[in-house]
């Protein structure tokens, strides 16, 4: 019985830590749309674009003036 409880506790702990380790970011655009990015978006200071990886793993860029806000998804 103790082994089952220990195993279930380990599984729950792993699931909790995985959920907390989310590295997704939400980009809220000025036109009202939203984009989910994998990992923290980076700013290219020469082109004034925010570069991010989309949900399909493709690298995308958007002009910084088109973004209203960015927030980390928990």
TrEMBL record:
Residues 1-21 form the signal peptide. Keywords: Cell membrane, Lipoprotein, Membrane, Palmitate, Signal. Residues 55-74 have a biased composition (Polar residues). InterPro entries: LSM_dom_sf (IPR010920), YgdI/YgdR-like (IPR010305), YgdI/YgdR-like_SH3-like (IPR047807). Pfam families: DUF903. It comes from the Bacteria. Residues 53-74 are annotated as: Disordered. The keyword Glycoprotein does not apply. This is Lipoprotein YgdI/YgdR-like SH3-like domain-containing protein. It comes from Izhakiella australiensis.
